[in-house]
């Protein structure tokens, strides 16, 4: 979460809106975008709803962590999920939008918190596929 907030701070201070800075052209660039919705622009301008959902996910994940953590996969997945959710909800509460800046052209612009959430989903998927072999060996 700290790395996410640092990268968002740097992006907000050193990038211009919708002016891409090529990193690995044409595949990766940095461009400042304020996201008032969720993934792919859904629920745009629904700040209260999106913040509420994130807070419920965060509190629920902490409250039910014993049930969620079934293996090493789900242990790390929960850490990444909480880091990503906290990073983005902090933006929504503090700024009213989420700062996005990583553009790989085939997806909407995203940020480090979004990467954490996607890693969490991948680890939870691995839990579903392989978790039965490593249950409670954490």
Description:
It is a single chain. The chain is α+β, with helices and mostly antiparallel strands and 138 residues long. It has one domain. It has five helices and three strands. The protein has helices spanning 2-14, 47-63, 65-68, 72-95, 112-130, and strands at residues 21-24, 28-35, 98-103. A three-stranded antiparallel sheet has the order 1-2-3. Strand 1 and strand 2 (28-35) form a beta hairpin. It is globular, with a radius of gyration of 16 Å.
Provide the descriptors you would attach to this structure in a database record:
138 residues, 5 helices, globular
Brief description of this entry?
With 138 residues, the protein is an alpha+beta fold. The chain has 5 helices and 3 strands.
Strand content: 5-15%
- In one word, what is the shape? globular
As residue ranges, the low-confidence spans are none
Q: What is the helix content? A: 55-70%
* Biggest sheet overview: 3 strands, antiparallel
Instruction: Give the overall pLDDT as a whole number.
Output: 90
Blueprint (SSEs and pairs):
Elements: H1 2-14, E1 21-24, E2 28-35, H2 47-63, H3 65-68, H4 72-95, E3 98-103, H5 112-130
């Amino acid at each position: 979460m700290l790395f996410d907030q640092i990268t968002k701070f740097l992006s907000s201070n050193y990038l211009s809106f919708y002016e891409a800075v090529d990193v690995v052209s044409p595949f990766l660039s940095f461009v400042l975008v304020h996201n008032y919705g969720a993934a792919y622009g859904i629920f745009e301008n629904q700040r209260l709803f999106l913040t509420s959902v994130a807070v419920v996910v965060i509190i629920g994940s902490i409250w039910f962590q014993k049930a969620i953590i079934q293996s090493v996969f789900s242990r790390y997945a929960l850490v990444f999920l909480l880091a990503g959710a906290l990073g983005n909800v902090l933006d929504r509460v503090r700024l009213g939008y989420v700062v996005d800046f990583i553009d790989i052209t085939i997806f909407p612009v995203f940020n480090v918190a979004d990467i954490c959430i996607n890693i969490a989903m991948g680890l939870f998927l691995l839990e579903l596929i392989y978790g039965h072999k490593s249950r409670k060996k954490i």
